[in-house]
Specification:
With 432 residues, this protein is an all-alpha fold. The chain has 17 helices and 2 strands.
Length: 432
């Protein structure tokens, strides 16, 4: 969930936000607004939770190969890559945000409702790309609507955003209660909720296009103005390391559902929501960690958490590893908040006001677009390469070897980051 939340947050700065009327609204109106936005965030992440983590487990019942499952997960990368075009070239110039969210939600829901009819890779893969291309822009647009209309966005937006975690947890719990982790029911649940989500978006405040009548260049949409930051050696190393860590990162998403299915975990979607509880806890701790340790040590801990997570999963495959698996799940908050949220804040600090939005957009496309494509593809290939010729009961793969692969990749990234990255110099009080 954090990964997608971050992708949406990264595109907020690419829009010219306004809050004209919000500051003059009576408190009751702001309370109503915050309630609506909280419900919106809940529904948005409930949808994503009901299918993403268990997609691999379901596709396994259709006899998809590991490579095909990896590519299916990579469909969201295409959504991340195409999202800036929808937001920057269409939503910002022609349509009110709440209306385009409504259309994307309803059409996306209809696509999801059709998904159970698709049972081959040649039909599932393009349908998933279409769906993800419809869903991903709602992340940026929803955040933008919130930031535009909240009177005190710095104070109120984090509270509203907490309900995305609540929605994610609720989705996993409902999925487990329906015993739908390996069933097409997950598609129906996501599709029906998406239609409700789209219709609910129409109750949000009117948010006209921010750049109506203006020319928007492709370079602005893709964040190419931020390439100048790569002249800084530390920033270039940071971008390289973040791209490289995204490669092992996706082993967790692509393979965990299949792994837990072979271990015969019951209610696995519900149990995996422990990751979101961890996410909330460590997100609260992040400001303190950054203040005490700085960017380098905090991000180092985030990468080290990924190393630890994968070695724990690898060890769990050759022993009675239930506690190790739970430990790997609970590490989620450190893995994401100390790495990607801290990384986003580092980018924000390094970029000046003129290119800050471009920098956030660029990193989103590199990490969660192209990084995701490489990571999901490699995760699927590695799973196929370690399929056992003689299954051990329900265990059909060498999971110790599968999980150790991303662990050692993450070790390499950790060493590279430790040696070459440098904390930015402290800015004086007069620095902007």
């Amino acid at each position: 969930m954090s990964l997608i939340r971050l992708m949406g947050l990264c595109f907020i700065r690419k829009r010219q936000l306004r809050a004209p009327a919000a500051f003059f609204e009576p408190p009751a109106m702001q309370t109503t607004l915050k309630t609506k936005l909280s419900v919106f965030m809940f529904l948005q992440y409930f949808i994503w939770s009901t299918w993403y983590m268990t997609l691999g487990a379901y596709l396994g019942t259709l006899n998809f190969s590991g490579q095909e499952i990896g590519l299916a997960y990579g469909a969201f990368a295409w959504g991340a890559i195409l999202s800036p075009f929808i937001v920057g070239l269409i939503a910002d110039r022609y349509f009110a945000s709440e209306k385009i969210i409504a259309v994307l939600g309803v059409v996306g829901g209809l696509v999801m409702l059709c998904m159970p009819q698709f049972r081959t890779f040649s039909t599932v893969y393009p349908a998933l790309i279409l769906y993800c291309t419809l869903y991903a822009p709602t992340l940026a647009l929803g955040n933008s609507v919130s930031m535009t209309h909240l009177a005190d966005a710095k104070k109120d937006f984090p509270f509203v955003k907490i309900f995305s975690a609540v929605g994610w947890i609720a989705g996993g719990v409902v999925l487990s209660q329906l015993k739908a982790e390996q069933s097409s029911i997950q598609y129906y649940l996501a599709g029906g909720t998406s239609i409700v989500f789209g219709l609910f978006a129409l109750t949000l405040p009117a948010t006209p296009p921010q750049k109506k009548g203006q020319d928007v260049s492709l370079g602005e949409v893709l964040g190419l103005d931020a390439l100048a930051l790569l002249k800084k050696p530390a920033f270039a190393i940071f971008i390289l390391c973040m791209f490289l860590i995204c490669i092992p990162l996706y082993f967790y998403f692509v393979n965990l559902g299949t792994y837990l299915t072979q271990l015969k975990w019951e209610d696995m979607a519900q149990k995996m929501t422990l990751a979101q509880i961890s996410d909330v806890i460590f997100l609260i701790l992040l400001p303190l960690m950054l203040k005490k340790l700085g960017y380098k040590k905090t991000i180092f801990l985030g990468i080290a958490a990924w190393v630890t997570r994968y070695f724990m999963l690898s060890a769990s495959a050759s022993s009675t590893g239930t506690l190790l698996i739970f430990g790997a799940i609970v590490l989620h908050g450190v893995c994401y908040d100390f790495l990607f949220i801290a990384g986003q804040l580092y980018v924000d600090a390094e970029a000046n006001e003129r290119i800050r939005g471009a920098a956030q957009g660029l990193i989103a496309i590199i990490l969660w677009g192209f990084g995701s494509l490489v990571g999901t593809y490699l995760a699927g290939r590695v799973m196929d390469a370690h399929k056992l010729t003689t299954p051990r009961g329900d265990i059909t793969h060498d999971w110790a070897a599968i999980w150790s692969t991303p662990a050692w990749i993450a070790v390499g990234v950790l060493v590279l980051f430790l040696i070459f990255f440098r904390d930015p110099p402290a800015k004086s009080a007069s620095s902007s």
